[in-house]
Design brief:
Elements: H1 6-18, H2 28-34, H3 39-43
């Protein structure tokens, strides 16, 4: 999936996190791999 804007990326991250079980966490590395984006870009 190729992202078009920062807004779309932000929404995608929020949706991904909202689907996690209660008290679960996800690393930024895992998020970047799942959304096919650069880890350094995700952290900025």
């Amino acid at each position: 999936m190729k992202m078009k804007s920062g807004m779309e990326q932000g929404v995608s991250v929020l949706l991904l996190l909202s689907r996690l079980p209660v008290q679960a966490s996800l690393t930024s590395e895992a998020i970047s791999q799942r959304l096919h984006m650069s880890p350094s870009y995700l952290k900025s």
